[in-house]
Design goal:
Layout lengths: L2 E12 L5 E7 L3 E7 L2 H4 L8 E7 L6 E9 L5 H4 L1 H17 L7 H16 L6 H12 L5 E2 L6 E3 L4 E3 L6 E3 L2 H11 L9 H18 L6 H11 L4
Helix pairs in contact: 3-8, 4-5, 5-7, 6-7
Length: 233
């Protein structure tokens, strides 16, 4: 029996001389992997974070489905022609591979990822995008930090609180960094912050991910976006 779903591509690897294994976060089935036979011979352009309509067959006893047809569900061009946006696609896909490890549908997370991909297509100022995405994703995953004091000077990564009290897991945060993280966790991205502040906020948030998401390591892709978006050369 053929099935249909909408999937966001977050991973691909060679399966044979002619085929690929593709991993999607799908609208109806959550995290799902498929064999796409003949994809390498056809030399198809298959993009990370591409949003595809999938037609597939899957046996109940098998972990992998078989793709019969795969078509773009949403035409995107800018994120695959703009080098900085293409790098961000790899970064976001890397994040998703390491955070979405449990099968099962989550409509809110699928909607969030789709909306951020559409935003990336049209966004012009890119240096805040990684922080926007990571704050929104961690909230959807259920790890929203709390602010104990209005003028908190420490972020306790273990407890997930911004506080005035220093602890073994707390990091000092300057006023602008604390303000940016607070406004972004609230979903407000209109306020302007300096590039250096955004870089510090991003590094602190990555540390928070590493404590709360098992085996979360994005050193390579993080290094690339730092060189791309936060270089002052």
């Amino acid at each position: 029996m053929k099935n249909k779903d909408i999937g966001i591509l977050i991973g691909k690897k060679n399966y044979s001389e002619s085929s690929l294994i593709l991993t999607f976060y799908t609208e109806l089935n959550g995290l799902s992997s498929f064999i796409f036979k003949g994809a390498r011979k056809k030399k198809l352009a298959i993009f990370h974070l591409g949003i595809y309509e999938l037609t597939f067959f899957k046996r109940s006893e098998s972990e992998l489905g078989i793709i019969n047809a795969m078509d773009l569900a949403l035409p995107l061009s800018e994120i695959y022609s703009n080098p900085q946006k293409t790098i961000l696609c790899f970064f976001i896909a890397d994040v998703l591979k390491q955070t979405l490890k449990v099968e099962g549908r989550d409509a809110l997370i699928f909607k969030f990822i789709r909306e951020k991909i559409c935003l990336l297509e049209v966004k012009t100022d890119l240096y805040t995008f990684p922080l926007e995405f990571l704050t929104g994703l961690i909230v959807n995953l259920g790890y929203l930090p709390h602010f104990e004091e209005a003028n908190a000077s420490y972020f306790d990564l273990q407890k997930g609180v911004f506080t005035a009290i220093e602890s073994p897991y707390s990091y000092f945060v300057d006023e602008q960094t604390a303000e940016q993280l607070k406004t972004y966790f609230e979903g407000n991205y209109e306020q302007t912050f300096e590039k250096e502040t955004t870089k510090k906020s991003l590094e602190l948030l990555i540390d928070y991910y590493q404590i709360h998401i098992p085996n979360f390591r994005i050193d390579v892709s993080l290094g690339i976006i730092k060189d791309t978006l936060y270089s002052y050369a």
